[in-house]
Every structure is written in C-alpha cells, then in structure tokens.
Design goal:
By secondary structure, the chain is α/β, with parallel strands linked by helices. A hairpin with a 2-residue loop joins strand 9 and strand 10. Helix 10 packs antiparallel against helix 11. It is globular, with a radius of gyration of 29 Å.
C-alpha cells in the first residue's frame, strides 16, 4: 500500500537545484536510507515529506493513513518545560545542505611553552554526580589528547576545567606560558543565530587573515562549501552540518597553539571529516579532542583520558583501540545480564591417546621446516631493510606452525 507519492518535484534555495524533477513512491513497511554528501538535499527531501516546506514545482500526495514524525538534528533552543515534557510532546524542525569540495587551513600562532597545562589532584561534582575526583595530568606542547567517556559523564566540563574556563572544586590547574586556545564548542555557542555568516566570521569586514594572507570573506567561506548567496543569510537558516563547517571556518582564522575540539565530527560528511583529520595531523600545536568517533580518535590522538565512572579518570597511551587493549576488567559485580560462571567439576583424566599417522608425519618433518624457515629468514635479513615486512611474515608463519603443533600435542597428552 502506498503512503507517499512524490511526483516531478523540484526545489532550490537560490542556488543549484537540490531536487530536479524527483519522483518517488513510498510503500507501507519500507525502510529507506537516504545517502548523499552534505548539500545534496537529504534534509530538504525529509522536510518535503513532513510538509515543513513546499516544492517549487511538482506535487506530493500523502495517504490519509500516513502519520509522519521527524527527528531533527538539533534540539530547538526555545523548547519549554522539562526533558520529560519535551520527549512526550515530540516535534520537528530544520535543515538544508549543499555540495562541493572543502578546503581547510589552520592558522597557527607562535609556539607555546613546553608545558601547556598541568592538573594537580583536581575534583569536581554536580550535586551527587562526580565528574572527576583526585585526577592529575601534565599536557605538553604537541600532545594530541583524546577524551573518551559515555554521554553525560562530564567530558565537556572536564575540558573546560583543563582550559581554565571552569575552576575545580579541589586541586588546581596551571596553564603554561604563551598558550593561545581556539575552542570548538559542541553547543555552537560561539555563533550568533541572528547575525549573518559574514558577520560571524569577519565581524562585518570583507577580508580575513588566513595563514598570514588576506583573503576575501566570500572566497574563504566557499572553501567551506558555502555559496555566495548564503553568506549574507543568518546563521539560524543553516543545517547542523553547515553550522559545524561555519564554526570550523571561525576557529581556523584564530591564531592558536592549542585546539580544544568538543565533538567536531558531528554532522560532517566523509570528505570534510578526512580533510579535518589531515589538518589536525599536520598541526604542530596541542590538541584536546572530545569525540565518540572511534576511527577519528585512533588516527589523531597520541594519548587518551578515559572516564571510567564515579569520578575515576585514567590516562592511556594511544587512541581508542589502544585504550581497549590496555584497559583491565574492573573489579566488582558483573554487568546486568551476565552470570557468574558455574564451578566446574573435576573430570577424570582422559586416557593418553597415540599420535595419528598424520601427526606422526608432521612431527617427523617439523625440524626440516624449521631449518628451511631459519634459512629463509637469514636470506631476507642479508637482503636489507626493504624486506622487513616479508621477514615479519616469515617469523609469524613459523610461530603459528609451532603453536598449532604444540596445541595438537598438548591435546593428546590431556
């Protein structure tokens, strides 16, 4: 049964058409994914389906049986009542996107001193929720620190404490000399909703300084995929992904030697995300990064600070996967849904079994195999460092064969 029919629909917002003669029928029970770059018109199509906007041409027919709800990207600022009231009431809102090739350049200031920040036994709590308790760390110039933790654990609060924007309730934080911080705000509070893109970035001027070079504001914002006709528009007209790109544009014209990034990857398309990652890897200053993006943390972070619950923070070397490898299982009760393993009864020892014919043959040929592998390893070593990968593979194969044989032997001895 059909629920929604889209017939020859076209939509534009003063620039290239986001939809051009689009035709689509949605049947009951279908689960449809919308794929596309920032700006390709995904959110525009969603708003057309909901009825928030009307097409420039064409028509949309909705079945009387259709009941449409939309989950917006951002929580509206003017929602009244409690969290429960908002969740119970539901709602729908905004978004428009557009395509292009993004170009990012980070404006770097003079190097900071060797010490960027030092936290000495800091503690902070909201009512009965412990954010951090008795944590100490030293952040040095060039460190790229990832901050990991569940939603609501206090990552943003902790970041503000490290930056000196929020005082700890116990302990102290000391910032080093020459520190210049550029802060990417998760809540986008640095953007004025009612001012234009141009006013937010250049404060009404026509030129901005990027990497020591004066650039026209239109050309600079086009590097972040904004169309010339969008530049005089107010920020409130932008989608979530566009706001993040605008905040990056604002961030990267600020001379800095410390970048504090609070969830910078939200709503960014893959191309923008990869380019941002490349620029951060090239950045010679210090980076404090809050993110849930596992791959992004793996590629950028050189160390991680992890929220482990009840105000406990632990520092690890490396990115997200490195933390997973290094962490130890916490003491205490098992998580809900898991049961303690039942004690096993001692079983009588199995009667020793003889080797099979195949296993006997493998045992007889094993010394020759090991000798051949040793000769191959020595030959590769003599050929130089270019064959290091092959050497590692050779050693790995040798170790695996020995391990398999030992397991086979131990199984027969049990």
């Amino acid at each position: 049964m059909g629920l929604i029919w889209i017939n020859e629909v076209s939509v534009s917002f003063g620039g290239p058409r986001l939809l051009d003669g689009a035709t689509l029928q949605i049947e009951a029970g279908e689960r449809i994914g919308l794929l596309g770059r920032n700006g390709s018109g995904k959110s525009t199509l969603m708003k057309l389906l909901v009825g928030d906007i009307t097409p420039d041409s064409g028509g949309i027919i909705r079945s009387n049986d259709a009941r449409i709800a939309m989950l917006p990207q951002d929580v509206p600022d003017d929602l009244p009542g409690t969290v429960y009231d908002v969740v119970a009431a539901g709602g729908s809102e905004r978004r428009r996107e557009q395509a292009g090739n993004v170009r990012l350049t980070i404006q770097e200031a003079e190097r900071s001193g060797k010490l960027v920040a030092e936290a000495q036994r800091i503690s902070f709590a909201f009512a009965d929720q412990k954010i951090v308790e008795g944590f100490s760390t030293v952040i040095l110039r060039g460190d790229k620190v990832g901050i990991i933790g569940p939603n609501g654990s206090g990552k943003t609060t902790f970041l503000k404490i490290l930056l000196g924007d929020l005082q700890p309730q116990q302990g102290r934080v000391r910032l080093g000399s020459g520190v210049r911080i550029a802060y990417f705000d998760q809540l986008r509070a640095q953007l004025d909703e009612n001012r234009s893109l141009k006013d937010n970035i250049a404060d009404g001027n026509d030129m901005v300084i990027v990497g020591g070079v004066a650039r026209h504001i239109v050309g600079y914002l086009q590097d972040f995929l904004f169309l010339p006709e969008q530049i005089p528009a107010p920020v409130r007209s932008l989608s979530g992904g566009e706001r993040n790109r605008l905040l990056l544009a604002k961030l990267f014209i600020l001379p800095s030697n410390v970048l504090a990034l609070d969830e910078p990857t939200n709503d960014l398309d893959v191309e923008t995300l990869e380019l941002l990652e490349d620029r951060l890897l090239e950045y010679s200053g210090t980076i404090l990064l809050v993110s849930h993006d596992r791959a992004f943390l793996n590629n950028v972070a050189t160390s991680t600070i992890v929220f482990e619950g009840e105000g406990r923070l632990q520092e690890y070397v490396g990115g997200y996967d490195d933390w997973l490898r290094q962490r130890t299982a916490p003491d205490g009760p098992l998580p809900t849904g898991l049961k303690e393993p039942k004690p096993r009864k001692d079983k009588p020892p199995k009667e020793k079994q003889k080797l099979s014919y195949k296993e006997t043959r493998e045992l007889e040929t094993l010394p020759q195999k090991l000798e051949a592998l040793e000769e191959e390893k020595q030959r590769l070593l003599d050929e130089g460092d270019l064959h290091a990968t092959r050497i590692r593979d050779c050693v790995r194969v040798s170790a695996e064969e020995i391990r398999r044989f030992e397991q086979s032997m131990s199984g027969n001895e049990d």
